[in-house]
Write a structure and sequence with these properties.
Largest sheet of chain A: 16 strands, antiparallel, barrel
Strand order of the largest sheet of chain A: 2-4-5-6-7-8-9-10-11-14-15-18-19-20-21-22
Distance between the termini of chain A: 19 Å
CATH topology of chain A: Porin
Radius of gyration of chain A: 21 Å
Helix content of chain A: under 10%
Oligomer: homotrimer
């Protein structure tokens, strides 16, 4: 097997060692973005704001090591957006590592994961940022996703019939997100996700990429439910957001619960994804050690829905629509936000080489808030 | 094509996929520097200051993707000097990405570039830091170069005769430099560069590396002119230097114009490079929102010249001389600086493996200021 | 030679160019750690603290360039623990580069090293963090090691008899540790290390990895002595620790001397490593420019011993014990610390794929202080 036995989009370097002692797929990717947006202020839309940036730039190594039953994944972020987030809990250092995880297929249909990677949360988040239908994920996701964490996960799959497949995923993790070096604060975080695929598996794991690029010949559906319980959580957005630091330096702790329901459906170029989330907290308002005075931090509780659907034409152009509605509890002082997005995509080599554009209209508490146009270019070896 | 089909200096990994769907050249390089310098204070040279450092350490990926008409370049900086520059406009994160750009040859003689890379500015800057004649670029360059920016560029070339070649390059970019994540401040930046090669192309793109390593058999010349207009610029050195922040948090904006003229000449081991630059600003003194009180920041306007020449002996030793003269406007309170540098280089494998040394004598407003001796070692796979 | 001619643990990519102009071994590795610890407070052990983290994640490139006599090594750290340490002396940037060094075999038995890498200090430090017998190095090492520095090293080896081998290593370096960009502070640092191998070389350079994985058939021993003199040192732990900054912004300087003696012995699965260190300083208490008022900083002078031994069973399980005793001088206000560690390791593919666990009991000035249990997983391509 020589080095040129690979193709664009299948890994820049991709091989299995001659003695089958390991395999490697190495793939860099980067995403360029242009964003033009208009804020609505004083009864009119203001002048355009421009933003050109390398939104993501990543190096991914994956494969198996020693045995095909032991898989690994190491993903590094390179762009300033990828690595931002230095704080006192990660030695005030950039967060280069996205994933560093091993996956051990210790018995048929079972996998044990250990390390840092995405929790089995909502579907929009589980879809790689390289496989999105719109230029960016929805507001539901940015406000409520579970993100990455350090811990262990147990994955299992069960055949419920000839084609009906069920997958069960549970995770125990630190609860404060990725790249933490200072150890666990408060309690641990527990996640469970149940996936039902009544019509069998999607082509090429299509339940985990958006847009029906494989043009499923039979209708395919995944329905899934996620439950997450973060005991004695210390950050305002579960394992992201501000740390709720009291004036005495200690951390306010409260139990946060998130539930998600999501669905993916694909058929002959048509794709639909829907998500619902609700986050609650035992005592959302952070208080000082005396238990009375508010610290000013509040757990961002609330709920949201997101629906999106697209149709892929035979020339690999796609038109897609998205509707997102986010409602936070009054205690957060965040106004209800609704967003409508129209996307037009051209897939040159599937998600590996594509040009995307979308136009979003956003309201805040029912009033005009923002219009933005985004153009995105993805290259993924 | 197997992995060992490459040579030192031609990429650590270098191949075209068997199906011609992409190519990759991966090349790490690093530069070690030793600097000993003596400052002139109180009528004499003081004791020596030492500085040993990894000046640059970089990983470069380039090649084509999907089609030979679509080229990409991704370059990462690794050394502390490479990645420094965290600020509020890049999420207080290190600036890991140097280049992330795609280059699309959409029609004969035309290329469209998109992403982050060097602007078509002055020649000394356009020459890669791995291909320099002296241990470091000139003072002209460090004070006036246009650097890297996010945006688009359009490149074209025109045959003006049998050998006479002209290249035209224009760019529109954000104007605040590389790795900005916070969007555009002030206005955009516009750059145009015109290159004339009356005697035809240099060997191996020799107009873009210093020293006549290819020993041109015919005299070769490039003359070029660059015009740059940064509308409502917000930094003191065009797209580098301090942000001109007012006490109310807003940014002072003024139009900055830079013009460059440069030339490269090579013939039988002899090489010459000359550069002239002039930077002006509509209102160089930054003022508070009231338009009257100075903020203390000043656009570093002024002009400079740099001449350098070298001769490469048959044993691949080179002796080179450089003269640089920098004059800033009085408003900047920077004194005129003149620098004379004598360099001696040994090219073991061209610019890929070399030892360089240079000795510089610098005056400030005509008075003794500094003597420094630098030793550099470059390795470039 | 094609890309798949390598095996797990022998480099993810490993080849010599067809024209023998260079070679490359590229190896990523990462270490996951779980730490559970109980502090002794108020006459009892408190509740457990948990810490899950990616302790190290590294990319290493090494081989030869241009000639087999010129070797290079470039090692990058990726984890937040690896890159932490931004300060005013390294442009407030993460310390991404661990090693960037060239090694020139300029004459038989001689090597000249230049760049940034580990100084020839104590053995526990010289053993790669990928080849340790316990989950982490000893307290002796964390308090007293010489670490990495920028400079040059000269290595030589001498045959003293049929099997008796001696190695001599000397280094001159900046003295403030790795990734410094601001130049040398105070004086330089001088290191000498002498290694004696009376019974000849260990298998596979076994004196530089812990645990007797090669099961030496003949007893093998290395005895070594290191002397280090850091002239006008400015940090509290020689080339690590706090910079001793005075209120006037200048740095307090004093001469620091470290001596080390260490030994490695291996025979038929049994391994022993012992180390002794003593650090002294001319004037350990940092004082203000007036030479009288203490600044609050103190050079962490003192001495320490560390002994560890293990036995590797035929099934590649190992049981190991470690005893460490650290005594700082009274001036440091650090209490004597003693640590007893019991380790159990399972080597799946030697040090390349292993699971390690250890249980430590620590006393402070003879009183109960801490119990901790660590679990480590290493994967090294």
């Amino acid at each position: 097997q020589d080095i040129s036995d690979t193709s664009f989009g299948k890994g820049m370097i991709n091989f299995v060692a001659k003695d089958s002692s390991f395999s490697l797929k190495f793939a860099p990717r980067f995403q360029m973005r242009s964003i033009t947006s208009w804020d609505y202020v004083s009864d009119q839309y203001g002048s355009a704001n421009h933003n050109l940036l390398i939104r993501r730039a990543r190096l991914k190594f994956d494969g198996f090591a020693y045995s095909p039953k032991l898989k690994y994944k190491l993903q590094l972020g390179l762009s300033n957006r990828d690595i931002a987030g230095a704080n006192d809990y990660n030695r005030n250092s950039p967060r280069y590592i996205l994933d560093a995880v091993i996956m051990w297929n210790f018995a048929k249909d079972w996998e044990l994961w250990a390390g840092q990677t995405k929790l089995p949360g909502n579907l929009d988040q589980l879809v790689s940022s390289g496989n999105m239908q719109f230029v960016e994920r929805s507001l539901l996701n940015s406000r409520f996703n579970l993100g990455r964490d350090m811990g262990i996960q147990l994955h299992h799959k069960t055949k419920l019939g000839d084609t009906f497949l069920m997958r069960e995923k549970v995770a125990i993790s630190q609860g404060e997100g990725r790249n933490v070096t200072s150890g666990n604060e408060g309690g641990l975080q527990y996640t469970g996700r149940l996936e039902f695929l009544p019509m069998g598996e999607f082509k090429s794991k299509g339940e985990y990429f958006q847009s029906d690029l494989k043009r499923e010949e039979q209708p395919k559906l995944m329905l899934a439910f996620t439950y997450n319980y973060n005991q004695d959580a210390v950050r305002t957005q579960n394992s992201a957001g501000s740390y709720m630091i009291r004036t005495d330096g200690s951390l306010y702790e409260t139990d946060i619960t998130s539930i998600f329901a999501d669905a993916m459906f694909k058929y002959k170029g048509f794709s639909f994804m829907g998500e619902y989330v609700k986050r609650t907290a035992a005592n959302p308002m952070a208080r000082e050690a005396n238990g009375i005075s508010p610290t000013g931090d509040v757990v961002l509780i609330g709920d949201a829905i997101n629906f999106q659907a697209g149709y892929l034409f035979i020339n690999n152009y796609e038109v897609a629509l998205r509707f997102t509605d986010v409602n936070h509890d009054d205690i957060t002082y965040l106004l209800p936000t609704t967003e409508y997005t129209l996307g037009v995509n051209k897939f040159i080599v599937g998600h590996k080489l594509k040009v995307q554009s979308d136009l979003s209209y956003r309201t805040l508490d029912g009033n005009d808030d923002n219009i933005s146009f985004r153009l995105g270019f993805d290259i993924h070896f």
